[in-house]
């Protein structure tokens, strides 16, 4: 049914020009009433004056857009999204989506209370009531769309920043030259980028490496890995670098197994996963990454290794692969303590492991009783943590002896003999 001076009710022109004029004139009072209702929220009072003014501006624009929308119902998304585009970026960062939707609900309640009484008759009253509800719904959807787009852009930026941090950890400090001509490290840049991701640079960390996941499920697994870090208060930084996945995991004051839950291991593809040693902070995480990556390269040499395996449990394989850090670690943890203990321990170890682990033969070579050899072997295990009678430990000890000779430790061995 068509009414004088207006189009069909519920369509364009359903509200008279006089009523639309009253709505336009009421925009300021409506915005103030909305702001007063919003002010009853405890958190709203903590906004700065500029932010509150921005909310008022958006609300006023919302009233104006509502009047325009009555003539163009099909333009809901364009008109409501326009209100969010004029909002300062600082306001969008300060207000969460939940709080924004709460403000939309408050404004809709005020609109529903104050706009329909401006109608000229019952038909206009019904149109305004329905219009407020439909427009409020459109604003809520526009808010969700705006926040989703911002979250997607922020997520993309965070992912790039995260990849830069992980790359800096793996690569290690590369000296450059400052304005004075002196070498300057890039630790400050690493700390700054990590802080932008909410990371505590002073927190102890481990680096875990392994094969990259299947690209088809990579995003899902890495997302679950990040969520696991948040739930367990042990945040992670993750990055896929070619065919490998690198995980930097915070260990806030707790020296424990970093792989809590199958979700972490599920993030890796098939193959060995290697855990680096604990580092004191993010700037020292390169040492953990270096050991973990060396272990990953050496892991094929020990097919029966545990899953996951610590980088320190692959020292012999790493040493055979030419890792100088593994050479030093073996000498420092095996040969040096035995040499410092004095006596015949180091020489006894060499004769025993290089003689095939035959106790009687070792005793004859050393011209001592077999019980003496047993005692010395037991002492070697107590000092180094490796038992010469255990096959794997014997391999570690023998590799340490070879590494010591390559590093000039042959004199103590001769003296012991």
Explain what this protein looks like in three dimensions.
This protein is of the alpha+beta class. It folds into three domains: 17-151; 202-315, Alpha-Beta Plaits; 324-416, Arc Repressor Mutant, subunit A (Orthogonal Bundle), CATH 1.10.10. It has 18 helices and seven strands. The strands form two sheets. Strands 4-5-3-6-7 form a five-stranded mixed beta sheet, sandwiched between helices. A two-stranded antiparallel ribbon has the order 1-2. Strand 1 (176-177) and strand 2 (183-184) form a beta hairpin. The longest helix is centred in the middle third of the chain and has 50 residues, at 122-171. The model is unreliable at 1-13, 175-185 and 410-417 (pLDDT under 50). Belongs to the CdaR family. This is Helix-turn-helix domain-containing protein.
């Amino acid at each position: 049914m068509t009414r004088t001076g207006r189009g069909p009710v519920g369509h364009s022109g359903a509200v008279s020009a006089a009523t639309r004029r009253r709505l336009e004139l009421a925009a300021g009072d409506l915005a103030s009433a909305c702001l007063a209702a919003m002010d009853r929220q405890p958190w709203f009072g903590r906004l700065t004056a500029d932010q509150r003014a921005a909310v008022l501006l958006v609300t006023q624009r919302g009233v104006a857009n509502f009047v325009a929308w009555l003539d163009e119902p099909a333009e809901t998304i364009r008109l409501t999204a326009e209100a969010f585009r004029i909002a300062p970026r600082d306001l969008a960062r300060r207000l969460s989506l939940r709080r924004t939707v709460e403000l939309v609900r408050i404004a809709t309640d005020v609109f529903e209370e104050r706009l329909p009484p401006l109608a000229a008759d019952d038909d206009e009253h019904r149109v305004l009531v329905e219009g407020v509800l439909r427009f409020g719904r459109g604003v809520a959807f526009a808010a969700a769309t705006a926040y989703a787009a911002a979250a997607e852009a922020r997520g993309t930026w965070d992912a790039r920043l995260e990849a830069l941090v992980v790359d800096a950890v793996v690569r290690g400090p590369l000296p450059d030259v400052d304005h004075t001509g002196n070498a300057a490290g890039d630790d400050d840049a690493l700390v700054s980028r990590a802080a932008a991701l909410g990371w505590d640079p002073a927190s102890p960390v481990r680096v875990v490496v392994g094969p990259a996941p299947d690209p088809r499920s990579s995003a899902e697994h890495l997302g679950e890995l990040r969520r696991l870090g948040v739930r367990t208060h042990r945040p992670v930084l993750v990055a896929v670098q070619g065919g490998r996945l690198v995980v930097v995991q915070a260990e806030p004051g707790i020296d424990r197994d970093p792989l809590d839950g199958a979700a972490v291991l599920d993030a890796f593809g098939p193959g060995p996963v290697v855990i680096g040693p604990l580092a004191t902070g993010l700037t020292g995480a390169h040492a953990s990454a270096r050991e973990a990556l060396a272990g990953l390269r050496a892991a094929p040499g020990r097919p029966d290794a545990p899953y996951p395996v610590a980088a320190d449990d692959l020292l012999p394989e790493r040493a055979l692969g030419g890792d100088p850090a593994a050479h030093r670690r073996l000498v420092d943890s095996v040969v040096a303590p035995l040499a410092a203990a004095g006596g015949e321990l180091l020489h006894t170890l060499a004769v025993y492991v290089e003689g095939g682990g035959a106790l009687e033969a070792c005793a004859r070579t050393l011209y001592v009783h077999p019980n003496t050899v047993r005692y010395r072997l037991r002492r070697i295990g107590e000092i180094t943590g490796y038992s010469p009678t255990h096959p794997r430990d014997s391999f570690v000890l023998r590799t340490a002896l070879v590494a010591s000779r390559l590093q000039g430790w042959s004199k103590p061995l001769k003296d012991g003999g």
